[in-house]
Amino acid sequence: MAKKLVWLAVLVVVAIIIFGVMGRDSSTGPIKIGLVAPMTGDTGFFGPQVKAAADYQLKKINDAAGDDGQKFELVYEDGKCAGSEAVNAFQKLTDIDGVKLVIGGICSSETLAMSPLANEKQIVLVSQASSNPKIEEEGPYTFSLSYSDSIVGEQLAKTAANGGKKIAIITEQNDFNIGIHDIFVEAMKSYPDVAIVSDETFSKGSSDFRGVLAKVKATTPDVLVLNPNPGTTAENLLKQLAEMKTWNGYKLYSQFAYLGDSSREAVGDFAEGMVIIDAPTVINPDFLAAVVAIEAEGVSTKDLGSYYTASTMDAVTLATTLAGQYENDPVKMQAALSTGSFTGFLGDIKFEGSNFVKFDKSGMYVVTEGKAVLQ
Amino acid sequence: MFGQVLIYALILATQVLFIALALHAVRLVSRVINLALGGIATAGAYTFYFAFTQQGWSVVWSAIFTILVLSVLGALNYYINERPTRKNQHLLALLASFGLGLGLEAIIALIFGTASKSFSVGIASSFNFGEYQVPFSGVAIIIGGLIIAISAILAYQFTPIGRTLRAISENNFSAMSLGINQSRFRITAYILAALVAGSIGALSGLYTAITPTMGFNLLVLGFIALLVGGVNDLKGTILAAYFVVVIPQLVVGLVPSVSANWQMLIVFVIASILLVLRPAGLFSPKQRLI
After folding, report:
1. Residue A212 distance to chain B (closest CA, Å)
2. Are B118 and A210 a contacting pair at CB < 8 A?
3. Which residues of B touch A42 (CB under 8 A)?
């Protein structure tokens, strides 16, 4: 019996090795590119939107290659907007699927967790949305097509300082929001006549903010900066703030979390006049046509927003261009990405040795009649 | 501000009380801490959401449907845990209940998605009590909690069912030798626990939004309340539910330099202190008598 079990184990190991080797054979098949994004969890609504944008762009590229051209395939993994899950996803993509370039993550927590592995394994990691300034300190294999939060944080501080003398900020405890918070607080030191009267943080994924809001209310701020992660948390925070009808006389400011109109739907007129600092809207005509085509297939990218939809599609274009041009060699792809110049829906894409794409201007939106309108 | 923070703290503590009472009921009859009750609380919330919001049924029909589903889940919870409980495999029963809770949450996430859901569109209604704002849903939670807690104490102390439950809890072999049908009492306790846990899931949905992980968050606090209050002490469990929630909420709400991030740490510190001072429960002797 024991002998049979040993033989069975040997057979299983041999089968795994054979299938593993077969799985890695991509000399004739499409080149695999990994994509890590939150497919489930509080920010899971981003997943289908990222997938729709990426699939649309990939189909366009594969169709353009013709019957004999190099084809590409996207392999999706769920990062759940969490570092540990993103690491699992990254390891699966690189060790089992054999990808040499990974697009993602969306959340800074995902990208910051995958980055050390990317450098260690020499796998090119291109995030289309992560904006935590710490990404700049990561190794040479990590790139982000997002603007850095330092730009948003500084602009948010400048705009809020013009809104009143007493500032309150409520921040969710995760990499994206803490990044903005730290830059914001540091930048506020440049405005000596403006004081931060309340600086509250809450745990990731909280759903009851009434206690925190009551505490902030007691400081009677002129300006209230909401700094939650996009999604469920942001919606609940705004909803519970809107419930506090006896609290008036403050101006609302925020970041990307409230750029999607659906994030403010539940509170009606309450969010009118809210100032949102984020990347500018992408107005490239080809991109706008692509968004219409994606939405015609039944998927709206409104939560992802104009910039991140464009950056997702550009990430696919970049990845396929590099993989095709440099035979999927990660060292050559990294060198090309670091020093080269590319064109996409975002305009000129160049890193010039930096981990962030060169980008120096943020956009200011004001909520008007339920829509975030670029000023 | 103290009053406003206290009101919110009492509402949250009452939510925890429901779960702690449900845990206590199952612990009484099976000597197992049943971790499926977090998932069952979530199931209660989503069942009501399905009936009331998605299907548009009336509140009464939605409540009846939710009660039916929760009863089935309570019975399922019982049958999964019965065998290991009978064999005194308490660790296995604990793991089985944890598995059921996680399974329920996973199924809910698959069916309804992971984004939060609200029973109604728009802002929840509230009224002003002096200078304080009180959500109607919060009042419903507190009144519901008080009714269930008082009913549980009265039933436990003064009714034949309560006496039987105490007998099973103290010595199930002696209770069996007296002709008590333990299985009937156990399944009843499991179903009642599911109804209590599920009802707070549904009520919490009126107060905040519902998510697939909402029950687990309540379960952690309910579990701590059960340990601090004393696993066999109903009054201790009720008091502990308020102790471990209200004090941290007040600290976070009133001390400017302490953010909400510290809340769970404060909960654990308070729980640790109480467990050191009163290891067998709030109302128990300082040390074991024997």
Report:
1. 6
2. no
3. 114-116, 211
8 A C-beta contact, residue A196 and residue A263: no
Using the beta-carbon criterion (under 8 Å), do B118 and A266 form an inter-chain contact? yes
Q: From 3.20.20.70, 3.40.50.2300, 3.90.550.10, 1.10.10.10, which CATH number describes the A150-278 domain? A: 3.40.50.2300
Q: Are A265 and B115 in contact (CB under 8 A)?
A: no
| E strand residue ranges, B52-113 | none
Domain boundaries, chain A: 2-147+283-350, 150-278
- Residue closest to A107 by CA, chosen among A92, A91, A89: A89
Q: What is the mean pLDDT of residues A155-172?
A: 93
CB-based contacts of A51-54 (< 8 A; 24+ apart in sequence): A51/A76, A52/A294, A52/A297, A52/A299, A52/A301, A53/A294, A53/A301, A53/A304, A53/A309, A53/A312, A53/A313, A54/A103, A54/A312, A54/A313, A54/A315, A54/A316
Q: Say if A2-147+283-350 and A150-278 have the same CATH topology.
A: yes
Question: Which class in CATH covers the domain with range A2-147+283-350?
Answer: alpha beta
Cβ-nearest to B8 among A214, A266, A268: A214
Q: Tell me whether 0.85 is exceeded by the ipTM.
A: no
Interface contact A45-B253, CB threshold 8 A: no
List pLDDT tens digits, range A174-201: 888 998 999 999 999 999 999 999 999 9
Q: Assign B286 a pLDDT band (cuts: 50, 70, 90).
A: low
Which of helix, strand or coil describes residue A374? strand
Q: Is the separation of the CB atoms in A139 and A115 below 8 Å?
A: yes
Query: What does the alpha-carbon distance between residue B58 and residue B62 come to, in Å, rounded to a whole number?
Result: 6
More confident residue, A254 or B174: A254
Q: What percent of chain B has pLDDT over 90?
A: 43
What 3-state class would DSSP assign to A172? Answer: strand
Q: What's the average model confidence in pLDDT over A300-306? A: 83
Would you say the pTM of this structure is higher than 0.90?
no
> Are B114 and A44 within 8 A, CB to CB?
yes
B72: Cβ–Cβ under 8 A, 6 or more apart, which residues? none
d(CA B254, CA B244): 16
pLDDT in tens, B19-39: 999 999 898 888 888 999 999
Instruction: Tell me whether strands A347-350 and A341-344 are parallel, antiparallel or unpaired.
Output: antiparallel
Q: Token pair of B266, please? A: 């404060």
Strands A251-254 and A195-202: unpaired
Residue A65 has pLDDT above 70, yes or no: yes
Q: How far apart are CA B216 and CA A13, in angstroms?
A: 39
User: Which amino acid type is present at position A10?
Assistant: V
Contact yes or no for A230/A257 (Cβ under 8 A): yes
